Amino acid sequence: MSYNILVTGGAGYLGSTMVPDLLAAGHKVTVLDNFMFKQTSLNHCCHSPNFNVVKGDIRVESVMAKLMKEADVIIPLAALVGAPLCSQDPVGATTTNHDAIALMLRLLSKEQIVLMPTTNSAYGTGDENNYCTEESPLRPISQYAIEKVAIEKELMQHPNAISFRLATVFGMSPRMRIDLLVNDFTYRAVYDRFVVLFESQFKRNYIHVRDVSRVFQHALANYDKMKGQIYNVGLSDANVSKKELCQHIQKQLPDFVFLEAPVGKDPDQRNYVVSNAKIEATGYKQAFSLDAGIAELIKGYQMMRNTRYGNV
Predict the structure, then answer these.
(1) What is 145-208 written as a DSSP string?
(2) What are the chain's domains?
(3) With a threshold of 0.85, does the pTM exceed it?
(4) pLDDT for 97-132, tens place per residue?
(5) Whose C-alpha in 20, 193, 221, 226 is 20 to 30 A from the C-alpha of 160?
(6) Please, how many CA atoms are within 13 Å of residue 36, restricted to the half-sphere of its CB?
């Protein structure tokens, strides 16, 4: 079955991988994005007659109302993502990550489907064993996670909503983000050859950007049995500490050195092990391993380097 799908923030890290996949599956896709990073990550989609793009702001009701009238499915990806960006612009973060989604929810009809990425960073440090299922208490630390938790509660009042609590995403994408942990550590391994770890035992779960795209299509195909639910989405064999992540990278880049700092504190205090059993029970199977993603990043970084203020 094909849908008319509105993807907000569709030119971002997730969207620029997801939108081509949705088009390839036969859906009609409209992207709303403000192109704040001046990205051209959807150039390769413009040939498709099923692709439409609108430059605009999700916080403007007239813009959202017009586009939502034509949509069967809304995938709200537009957000100021991550604690550092939200700290830099806390007002913009609140109006984009919470208020604009609340506006979208008010404009929704009961028949429209919403598939929304939230975050498993909402678990904070988990329970006494740092173990988390969808039923675990939420202890968000950052503004980003706090607002995602608040909006998820509102989202799940809609009868046709599905929330995906995404693990930390990694992998190459047309609109690349080097600041995500696996991407960042691999970039440092390629170019700096070393990294200093604070609280190296802290664990986190990970998921490839293409597996994120796949889980949204899985939800469309299995919508009747999945609607109204919250799902963790991560790699079950990739609940790894920062030290273990570095060891994975070192297997492919043997001259990479990582040092564990004897003092100091990581400002990001997330530390948890996440169960992905619920999404796997629906028949979803992850396709891209952590090691495969690291190999992909190593290749990708041969084509890019942040040298804006350097001479080499």
Answers:
(1) HHHHHHHHHHHTTSTTEEEEEE-EEES--SS--S-SHHHHHHHHHHHTSEEEESSTT-EEEEEE
(2) 4-169+206-235+275-286 (3.40.50.720)
(3) yes
(4) 889 999 999 999 999 999 999 888 888 775 567 889
(5) 20
(6) 14
